[in-house]
Amino acid sequence: LRESPAPHPRAPRRAVLGGILTAPQWARAQSPYDAAFAASTKLDADAFYAAHPYRSAGDVLAYIEKCAAPGDASAVLQAFEYFGKKYPMYSIGATKGKILDSAVATARPRRIVEVGSFLGYSAVRMAAKLPGDGMLACVEGNPEFARTAEGVVARAGLSDRVRFFVGLAADEIPGVAKTLGRADLVFLDHCKECYAPDLERMEAAGLVAKGTVVVADNVVFPGAPGYLDKVAAPAYATVLKSAPYEAVGWETRWKEVDDAMSISTRL
Ligand SMILES: C[S@@+](CC[C@H](N)C(=O)[O-])C[C@H]1O[C@@H](n2cnc3c(N)ncnc32)[C@H](O)[C@@H]1O
Known about the structure:
Elements: E1 2-3, E2 15-17, E3 20-22, H1 32-42, H2 45-51, H3 60-67, H4 73-86, H5 93-107, E4 111-115, H6 121-127, E5 135-140, H7 143-155, E6 162-166, H8 169-180, E7 185-188, H9 195-204, E8 213-216, H10 219-223, H11 227-230, E9 236-244, E10 258-266
Helix pairs in contact: 3-4, 3-7, 5-6, 8-9
The chain binds S-adenosylmethionine.
């Protein structure tokens, strides 16, 4: 094994093994944040709990700030996911996050509305895929959660394209419609019984109109009363994407409960 000299201390070095260039694990330059994240993921559960005591859901922000470099959205999501394995977390998580990603990739939205932002996980996922002139309006009813979510979005370097509306969706929808006009994509992830009436409010306000894609989580478990009827034909074209309920890892009671996200296009 011979190592070629590194051209720059931060540049990945390559090992020449039997004439074949390999990409060793350490090919990715290590920042202090990478090191903090690597160290914390190596802690066993008890040591993790001791190092990161949990007083409230918002503690995720301190953990993210320790593990993710400013502006690194994917490191923010990674730290979020790891924290959610240890402590209560109702973010959609990585599996359903990929379904959301593919809905965003297909719709290529410029204006997104999220209803139910919690601590900002799905907001970071969607905002990272917006074009520079895009905007994500986040509606969150709990001011404490909204403050944490703002911090998480800021850490991911996405504050310029995310605006928070703090209050219940029923009260905030008119203001969001005034700011955004028509939305290209809406993500519903708040109180499940609110999906159907809030979708009606968004239609009435002109936020949801022909061509708007509406993604909704938990339409099977816990289920959103009346919602799937509302997004049935002929008003919407809807597909369901199966995925297990997201609160797993720390919460074994619900492990492997079937759920689905719906993706609906207003016709
Ligand atoms: C499941 S969490 C959202 C998770 C988030 N979308 C994510 O994946 O990171 C639901 C959130 O909806 C908020 N919420 C519930 N009912 C609401 C309402 N009527 N209006 C606004 N926010 C609401 C709750 O405070 C909570 O933070």
